[in-house]
């Protein structure tokens, strides 16, 4: 089976493409290109018109489940209702094309779950995306059992070895500490569960054009982090720093963009900042390859760094020079001046953001009623 590979531009790769927005795929190594269409992707993700019997079966299942769920709610037993709702959802997922599930997971994880947990305070909603991720294990298993991959081979990627090592460490430490099943499920929500998405890539279900669309969607969502973070800084964190909103956590912990969090507690600000750092490297790479305009790249980097500045995530800020160094390491000898300038600029940005943390966050809580709870200082 032809391999599905996605390659993001790397330093030192061939340039010369006309500069513009995010251009269409170019079939060259190191470019924003996607090569080798998967036969599995073409066959498995082709939509077939469902038969009348399938429609009647699904309709019957949904109606019966709805009646049972309503009965559980009427009896006041929420566990019955939630259990039946989960079974109904699992039934729907099993007949849903794997790529549809995949797109739902991306939208839930990066755009939908966060605002719902933040504004509606429905923390249980965070389980939906990991549960769908886990369901993709079953979807891929059904794909294999269906025989659609017969006669095709898939190369195991190098990172699978490290996942196996990680899984061994997880199982070893779990056995050593004797954790409960509930604790194991809770801990697996953001690692082992989400490997279902990796499995979808591994078996070649994702088409080339889909990978292109994923990168474009992630870049679009990255732009939305700044207005969300600005709102959270002006109307939530500022009230927490003055004591108007009671909280034992630092006020800047409520700045999470579209990622999960709460207005009176902590949140996934580190995940948001890490995501933005990855998108910064992507936009710089696209610009160097002539696939993104310079002013668009500069605007995005400015907005992304501003968002990281509002969120106060020192660990990610310290990683800015590290990631730029890793990106430019192949150009140390070929383009030493450009490499030195880029790394030096990243160090200046790091110091500037840390100084901004002092002015935006730490200085503003010195005279606040909750100042005694924090001992933060950049220097």
Describe the structure.
- With 379 residues, the chain is mainly alpha-helical.
- The chain is built from 13 helices and 2 strands; from the N terminus they run ββααααααααααααα.
- It has a two-stranded antiparallel ribbon.
- α10 packs antiparallel against α11, α10 runs parallel beside α12 and α12 packs antiparallel against α13.
- The longest helix has 34 residues.
- The radius of gyration is 24 Å and the shape is globular.
- It starts with a strand and ends in a 17-residue tail after the last helix.
- The N terminus is likely disordered.
Q: How are the strands of the largest sheet arranged?
A: 1-2
**What's the order of the H and E elements?**
EEHHHHHHHHHHHHH
Query: How many strands in all?
Result: 2
Helical/strand content category: mainly alpha
Strand content: under 5%
Poorly predicted parts: 1-37, 39-49, 366-375
Radius of gyration from the alpha-carbon trace, in angstroms: 24 Å
Keywords:
single chain; 379 residues; mainly alpha; two-stranded antiparallel sheet; 13 helices; disordered N terminus
Q: Summed up, what is this model?
A:
This protein has 379 residues and is an all-alpha fold. It has 13 helices and 2 strands.
């Amino acid at each position: 089976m032809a391999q599905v590979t996605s390659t993001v531009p790397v330093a030192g790769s061939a340039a010369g493409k006309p500069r513009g927005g995010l251009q269409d795929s170019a079939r060259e190594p190191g470019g924003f290109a996607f090569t080798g269409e998967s036969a599995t992707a073409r066959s498995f993700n082709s939509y077939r018109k469902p038969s009348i019997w399938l429609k009647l079966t699904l309709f019957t299942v949904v109606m019966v489940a709805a009646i049972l769920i309503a009965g559980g709610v009427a009896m006041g037993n929420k566990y019955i209702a939630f259990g039946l709702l989960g079974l109904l959802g699992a039934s729907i997922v099993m007949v849903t094309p794997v790529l549809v599930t995949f797109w739902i997971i991306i939208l839930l994880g990066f755009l939908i779950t966060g605002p719902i947990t933040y504004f509606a305070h429905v923390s249980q909603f965070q389980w939906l995306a990991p549960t769908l991720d886990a369901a993709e294990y079953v979807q891929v298993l059904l794909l294999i059992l269906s025989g659609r991959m017969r006669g095709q081979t898939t190369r195991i990627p190098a990172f699978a070895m490290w996942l196996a090592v990680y899984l061994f460490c997880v199982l070893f430490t779990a056995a050593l500490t004797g954790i409960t099943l509930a604790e194991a499920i809770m801990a697996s929500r953001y690692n082992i569960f989400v490997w279902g998405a990796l499995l979808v890539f591994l078996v070649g279900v994702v088409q080339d054009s889909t990978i292109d669309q994923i990168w474009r969607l992630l870049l679009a969502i990255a732009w939305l982090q700044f207005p969300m973070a600005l709102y959270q800084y002006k109307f939530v964190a500022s009230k927490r720093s003055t004591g108007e909103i009671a909280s034992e956590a630092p006020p800047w912990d409520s700045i999470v963009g579209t990622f999960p969090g709460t207005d009176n507690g902590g949140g996934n600000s580190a995940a948001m900042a890490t995501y933005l750092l990855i998108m910064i490297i992507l936009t710089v790479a696209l610009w160097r390859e002539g696939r993104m305009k310079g002013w668009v790249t500069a605007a995005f980097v400015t907005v992304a760094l501003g968002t990281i500045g509002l969120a106060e995530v020192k660990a990610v800020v310290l990683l800015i020079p590290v990631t730029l160094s890793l990106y430019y390491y192949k150009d140390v000898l070929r383009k030493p001046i450009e490499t030195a300038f880029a790394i030096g600029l990243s160090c200046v940005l790091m110091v500037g953001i840390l100084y901004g943390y002092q002015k935006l966050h730490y200085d503003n809580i010195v005279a606040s009623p909750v100042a005694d709870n924090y001992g933060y200082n950049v220097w």
